[in-house]
Input
Amino acid sequence: MVTGTTNVGFEEQLWQAADKLRSNMDAAEYKHVVLGLIFLKYVSDSFTEKYNELKAQGYGDEEDRDEYTAENVFWVPKEARWETIKSHATNPDIGEVIDSAMELIEKENDSLKGVLTKNYSRQELDKTRLGELVTLFTNIDVGSSAAQEKDVLGRVYEYFLGKFASAEGKLGGEFYTPSCIVRTLVEMIEPFDGQIYDPCCGSGGMFCQSARFVKEHQGNIRDISIFGQESNPTTWKLAKMNLAIRGLEANLGKHNADSFHDDQHKTLKANYILANPPFNVSDWGGERIQDDIRWKYGTPPAGNANYAWLQHMIHHLNPEGGVAGVVLANGSLSTQTSGEGEIRKNMINGEVIECIVSMPGQLFYSTGIPVSLWILRRGKNEHTKGNMLFIDARNLGHMIDRKVRELSEEDIQKIASTYQNWRQGKDYVDIQGFCKVATIEEVASQDYILTPGRYVGIEEQEEDGEPFEEKMTRLTSELFLLFDQSHMLEEQVRSALRGIGYEQ
Output
């Protein structure tokens, strides 16, 4: 049984075991094998939980599909249930059995049509290792509660998404936003109830964190409505599975589609938008929609989609206080090329930018580009009107390996509480080097550049009590002593070289 009793976390143990079975398969390919199996186990476990409940009651028909669909449980035919799958784990036909199960589940559940992976029987997939994966997921030990089982499978799915993003590097960024970034945005905009929208939703991480926020604050998950869109067909399928495994209903459009050219939610005016659009996209087709209704603050350049994304989201915000949290590359804060500076100026004067947060570098698996968070709002309140909040969080976080940094929960709360205190007009004070409220006039005097470092200044250094003149004398003396030691060592090296016949 896979358990969480050691110092290594449960999800990490499971990942290590699953990764051993990867052999020479690329992470991008293996991802769909593993995540598809996790999803298959989830739908089967959910069905089995309801099945056993009906059987125990004695008055319900455990084979009546309406009993399941009424509670948002996927109907799973006998041949597709995990009991059938695991019984074939050591058989050479395991691939065909899994493919058949996926096809049956899609056939019986309209919302999953065209979503599930159905190529487990292909010749190049090692059936022995596939069977070992089935056994691995069969033996997930989560205790006796089926509710716990659901939660664990959701956690495992999310954890594996992050691990695959790390393994795939740059390509992984197309479907996964680091959870600490998502949690920061969610804590800032607090999507407690209403419509939540992400026009480039990747694997759906923004929605999952929003749902978690609602549950943690004793809210009702039914009070939020999820709308999303994703252009990559494979990633769109990942999002459908990721949300389904948490029991979240979502409208992700009829199919994968480009938000700029095939907006699946044209009339939507969302209460909350959470998004991490692809950075600096140059081939987004802007030349074909120059006069679009969404470009209220100026036509975005055809060579960069950053300001198209921002305006697309503003267009889809509820005019009565709708708020968006957006991740963008830092270049968008100061660019003046191709009219972007003018668009930014119009957005600032139009009072739709509320807060900018500079984030630490190395948060992404896919890029080292430093990013910033934009908080956009239609309808500022009395405390924020005429002002903007700048937060410089570049010194927060800690390295979790040689390449990737992560924000702690304390870091996230520091950023979010600073924003919330300012917005609510309570307990907020400017902190040199970290946060500063600037008027729109002050921003205008900075040529409408939004880099927080321009406003918050340099963090104050703690005084050590040593007078400046004395410190300079001491440090200069130490420096000259080091120079003398350097010259002495240099002469020793030269002498040694001369001794073996090397002399310049």
Summary: The mean pLDDT is 87. The longest strand covers residues 323-329.
